[in-house]
Amino acid sequence: MEAKTKKSGTEKASRAQASTLLDPAILGPAVAGSFRKLDPRVMARNPVMFCVEAVAVLTTILLLRDVATGAGNPGFGVQIVAWLWFTLLFANFAEAVAEGRGKAQAASLRKTRTETDAKRLTDPDATLGHGFNGGYDVVSATRLKPGDVVLVEAGDLIPSDGEVVEGVASVNEAAITGESAPVIRESGGDRSAVTGGTQVLSDRIKVRITAAPGSTFLDRMISLVEGAQRQKTPNEIALNILLAGMTIIFVIAVATVPSFAAYAGGSVGVLVLVALFVTLIPTTIGALLSAIGIAGMDRLVRFNVLAMSGRAVEAAGDVDTLLLDKTGTITLGNRQATEFLPLAGVTERDLADAAQLASLADETPEGRSITVLAKEKYGIRARDMAELHAFFVPFTAQTRLSGIDAEGTVIRKGAVDAVLAHAREQAQDSNRLVAAGRGAALRTATPADPAEREILTIAERVAKAGGTPLAVAQDGRLLGVIHLKDIVKGGIRERFAALRQMGIRTVMITGDNPMTAAAIAAEAGVDDFLAQATPEAKLQLIRDEQAKGKLVAMCGDGTNDAPALAQADVGVAMNTGTMAAREAGNMVDLDSDPTKLIEIVAIGKQLLMTRGALTTFSIANDVAKYFAIIPAMFLAFYPQLGALNVMGLASPESAILSAIIFNALIIVALIPLALRGVPYRAVGAGALLRRNLLIYGLGGLAVPFAGIKAIDLLVTAIGLV
Amino acid sequence: MTVNGWIQILVFIALVVAVTRPLGGFMTGVFNGGRNLLSPVFGPVERGLYRIAGVDAKAEQHWVTYAVSMLLFSVAGMVLLYVLQRLQGVLPLNPQDMAAVPADLAFNTAASFVANTNWQSYGGESTMGHLVQMAGLTVQNFVSAATGIALAVALVRGFARASARTVGNFWVDLTRATLYVLLPLAFLIALFLVWQGVPQTLAGAVDATTLEGAKQTISLGPVASQEAIKMLGTNGGGFFNANSAHPFENPNALTNLVQMLAIFAIGAGLTNVFGRMVGDERQGWAILAAMGVLFVAGAAVCYWAEAQGNPAFAAFGVDGLAGNMEGKETRFGVAASALFAVVTTAASCGAVNAMHDSFMPLGGMVPMINMMLGEVIIGGVGAGLYGMLMFAIVALFVAGLMVGRTPEYLGKKLEAKEVKMTMLAVLCLPVMMLGWTAFAVVTDTGTASMANAGPHGYSEALYAYVSAAANNGSAFAGLSANTLWYNLTLAVAMLVGRFLVIVPMLAIAGSLAAKARAPASAGTFPTHDGLFVGLLVGVILIVGGLTFFPALALGPIVEHLAMSAGTLF
């Protein structure tokens, strides 16, 4: 995993595919795997191929009997039987190759799961600070139980999944994510989850173990990519029923032939009947079905997304509504100051000056952008806090204000209502009046004070334009408003338009007020938005959409996202998120990139499309096979039926042999398509269907006519029959 | 083929399309409950019937209850019909003193009429008295058709409803289908037929002396009333053995056109009911269009084959211009006979105005294919629609994934349960059609009944089982079917072909009704346009039709090829 470098997801995915389709390291074991999978207990999972195996065994026995008694035409029989077995091996090979790609990944993951030792604290309550006595036992990581508390120091591997209960550390998570840049993990908040197998680079932390041995994230990841736990997805199960049903129909169609032939005074050999049966039943899709499913999961893994079940991948294709967090997905993470809007009687420069002073020590991106804007617009240089003898007053969730207290002057900036309250308090302080009815006054729609009225008017204007207003006050005097603007990501509008064409509705989730949210939603081109979103509101939105029969996808990272993640049909938890979020979602994005939700949907759709395309192709193939085998089968007693030999195949034997060879080779020919998936473009269902029906429906009708004819020419030329 | 012939076919198609919407609108009203045009007349009757039967018209049924009600009703009808036949010798209204019907024939006939097949192993005028014809056969003509309509409506409700537990009330649907749809329409058609000269009397046969002085017994009876429902309910059991070829059943070209229209009217109207109930009439038109494509193709092939005539006759200097007139009535000619044959087998009617046995091999193959496809081309009243919808489920399951979503139809996800039930229903037909034929053609009892040798004899047996399992009831007349073997096996084929399709279909209805309905978006599979129609037709031909290719190759296809080479059977 060390060698794995991280690039943008798409680039990474395409590169990986190019290398693995022809990777000898995978092909070798896959060939061996194809033979191992002939075990009937394994084959029984696949009804179509199980039928093929049953008739292959039957014909092999009959062939051996014929050879022993010297009856029949063993040359022809040997070839038919051989191609029956090849059909099976090719089918197994497809599955083995698909699994092989996952196995290679699993092997490299397993290396990181080597035996580690854990420092289990004898006193779980001992704090890391001064007086930490460091009492711990060294135990094997595999003996850790949930609830144990361990100490992890710089250079140690984290022994198992857990929650940081004390301390801050930088952690290298390359083993899981492939990302070599370290990440910060700290107790409390949404960055507290650590994963077993990752390495602490600096500092030390106390970790409470949350996973039982053998069921850590890494363990699950290994078994997922390996496909060991692969369960058939609901759609696969249903498709298997359809294929099994069609197989039974063809059993009847073929089994009644001998009796019809007997009436006509002829007979049809078992080999020919078997050939007809095997070519008619949907072997192509039957052989490739599981490979398609495994490859779909694999595409997600390559994309650094772990789906906890195949069901989730299928659901991703079905998603009707995408809930996207505004910050980080639709807009760049940081808002930037773009304008100073002073009150009447205040110059823009004075406002800029005060705003800059208030932001000098503010290290948030918003704060820095205010300093920069003041400098750019008015050449006000950033001053040194120490020189001013100023104290920084940091932002808290209670005050919702930040600023400085310098000699004799108090500057605050923050949410408009908070600054208004602050200013009034300051003014009241100076007037030595009792601060009564403060909150009530604020809530009235039109405050008495003209300055307050003006501030509110400006703030509303800013909010309507999609910005966030920050009010500034100096010594209780309101100065004006800073316009903080959300920067919508480039190209996001086009992506939403593409999603709309695919019939997917996008809903932006934001903590902003409705006015701001509406403006950003309009700019980004989302279909709807949820403003002032609380976890409860989010959960309710998901339930409402689901009640309308829609499937909902969302991503989240915090503990309070967990209920919504669990409720959503596709819940993508960020790897940086809390353990609760990761448990609740049915996918984990190792890169913690919320934009990926869009690609996840595309991968889900591609998986389903591939399955549908190959099913259609497989069934359409039957037409040509009938025309190859029916005339050959009855020619002996109804020579007139030679007229149905529209392909002009050389002889009955060559026709039957060509059909069965085609039937086997088409599986091999389609393995790359099954693994890669059919090309996917974000267009409407109608356009997708037209294109796919043309290629895989009509193509499926036409290709075998050409293919069987070509094989027939070859078979005759070589003199196989 | 002549321009006149094609105009007849086109006029017929135009009339069918014209009646679809008005009938659909009326029937939607009937099955949504509430008042309609005929409520003032039949409302009191309807309420009275519910009171007598103790039915709570407001109480809806779960699909299982619905299915059990339907099965109980059918079993009761079958027993009653069997007893009526067995006791007809001692019952009144039997002016010709017909004897009791033999047990195997009575069983076959009871199964046949309850299953809406109306396969007749007997000659109507020489076997059944007026009481059996009226109180037995005609009653089943009404209620077996009404049952079919009720079932189709139940399935449509499955698509139309969301998160519902029930699919309707069988007793209410049955009553309303009979009272508001079948009775009034049958009444109108019967009046029309009487006006055109079809007998309607309770008198017995009339003896006439022919010009040669021979005595001829001319059977009479309540023909017009049975004729009307025979067509309208896609029953097909004629009053006379010659069925609609008999001048008393179908006297002229006009009655012929009206009869064909009556066969298709309700089935076509139900596609519109489907569209209206699911809230998008285009969905209904798409289904009708798929039926239309298959119908026109079949009519064209059949008409072409019949218009060619038999090449062997040319050797005797016979003018082939008239086409193949063997077994056809001169008052209908080739086009109207070929069209009638395609109509009657596309729908599961089974009435005939010409002998299908005498058709050219490929001409006779078209009716066979129509039935092998499961009679989804308009089909039996109700049965055609639910058969077609099941093919739509298969088509969407095969190809629906190609739009990148798991399969859905009209906002309903198609999952393992729907697929399982659909495949069960789809499986019934090939098992019955091919399985029984395979037995019949290699046993002495089976082959003894065949009138012809070679592929043609084979076609006769195949046609019989295909017709029975598809609940059509028409016959390749060469087969003498009134034997113990054929009476019993055909009865089994009819019952399986009807009820083993219906029960899984109702299970689908129940399962669909319980699902939430996802609104359509740009990402959902469009099921109202030409692409879907093409896909549906393709799936029907490949999944429904190809199964029978080996069987057809050994029957009509080889017969046709042999005929071209100069060998006849």
Could you provide a short overview of the structure?
Chain A is α+β, with helices and mostly antiparallel strands and 721 residues long. Chain A contains 28 helices and 22 strands. In chain A, the strands form four sheets. A seven-stranded mixed sheet of chain A has the order 10-22-21-20-11-18-19, with helices on both faces. In chain A, strands 2-1-3-9-4-7 form a six-stranded antiparallel sheet, with no helix packed on it.
Number of domains of chain A: 4
Task: Compute the average pLDDT of chain B.
Answer: 91
Q: State Rg of chain B.
A: 23 Å
Distance separating the two termini of chain B: 25 Å
Which parts of chain A are unreliable, with pLDDT below 50 for 5 consecutive residues or more? 1-19, 432-445
Query: How are the strands ordered across the major sheet of chain B?
Result: 1-2
Strand content of chain B: under 5%
What does this structure look like?
- The complex is a heterodimer of chains A (721) and B (569).
- Helices cover 54% and strands 16% of the residues of chain A.
- Chain A is of the alpha+beta class and 721 residues long.
- A seven-stranded mixed β-sheet of chain A has the order 10-22-21-20-11-18-19, with helices on both faces.
- In chain A, strand 18 (505-509), helix 21 (514-524) and strand 19 (528-530) form a beta-alpha-beta unit.
- In chain A, helix 5 (74-112) runs parallel beside helix 27 and helix 8 (234-255) packs antiparallel against helix 10.
- With 569 residues, chain B is mostly helical.
- Chain B has one domain.
- Chain B has helices at 3-31, 39-53, 63-86, 103-114, 124-127, 130-160, 170-195, 223-232, 253-277, 281-308, 311-314, 333-346, 361-372, 383-399, 416-440, 444-448, 454-469, 484-514, 530-545, 549-564; strands at residues 206-209, 215-218, 408-409, 412-413.
- In chain B, the strands form two sheets. In chain B, strands 1-2 form a two-stranded antiparallel ribbon. A two-stranded antiparallel sheet of chain B has the order 3-4.
- In chain B, helix 13 (361-372) runs antiparallel to helix 20.
- The radius of gyration of chain B is 23 Å and the shape is globular.
- Chain B starts with a helix and ends in a 5-residue tail after the last helix.
- Classes of the chains: A alpha+beta (721), B mainly alpha (569).
- Chains A and B meet through helix 8, helix 9, helix 12, helix 25 and helix 26 of A and helix 14, helix 15, helix 17, helix 19 and helix 20 of B.
